[in-house]
Amino acid sequence: MRHSIIGFGEVGQALARAFARKNIEVAVASRRAPDALAPKAQAIGPMVTPVSLRDAVHADTIFLAVPFWEHRAVAKAMPTWHGKTLIDVTNAFGIPVEDLGGLASSSVIARAFPGAAFVKGFNHLPAAVLGADPSVNGGRRVVFLSGDDEGAAPPVKALVEQLGFASIWLGKLNEGGSLVQARGRSWAPLIFQDLIKSD
């Protein structure tokens, strides 16, 4: 199973640290050339490999950690996304509600990636918290997940657990998923909630 992270800002780097901590290989890509990402990737660890966007989209599981509207450029990298699992880590804070056509931000992104097994996740924690060790006081830090494709849930839950987090499935994007999405300049109630699940 190949994994990639598209977007290598603070959130993308935090995700890369989660992979490196568990010695799981992950490719990272952004608008910049792989060579430009190399110093920060090497500082995180040898399991983090900078690649081009063209190579990153060939992973089986792809974390989308780009500024919201940049998802459109990523979506054009493949004619179809069948066989891919896409984990949407974006936040649309500050995006006017009318620009989203009345949809939840993740629903907008899901439409841009036809055929993908689409899951919203990992977006509710600040980068510094997301990048920290998820083992806390005998428990594990919670990652909220949601999506309209229930078949996508088990493999993403398994990956969350493999990375050392605990998963909580919130249901469909317009139901539980709305609890972890920004709307205009308002944050949903589960954003920034750093919860720990006792083992």
TrEMBL record:
Q: Which InterPro entries match?
A: NAD(P)-bd_dom_sf, P5C_Rdtase_cat_N, STEAP_metalloreductase
Superkingdom as given in the UniProt entry:
Bacteria
Q: What does the UniProt keyword field contain? A: Oxidoreductase
Q: Cytoplasm: is it a keyword of this entry? A: no
Is the Amino-acid biosynthesis keyword given for this protein? Answer: no
SUPFAM superfamilies, per database record: NAD(P)-binding Rossmann-fold domains
* MF terms (GO), sorted A to Z: oxidoreductase activity
Domain Pyrroline-5-carboxylate reductase catalytic N-terminal: residue ranges: 5-91
Q: Which PANTHER family did the record assign?
A: DUDULIN-RELATED
- What name has this protein been given in UniProt? NADP oxidoreductase coenzyme
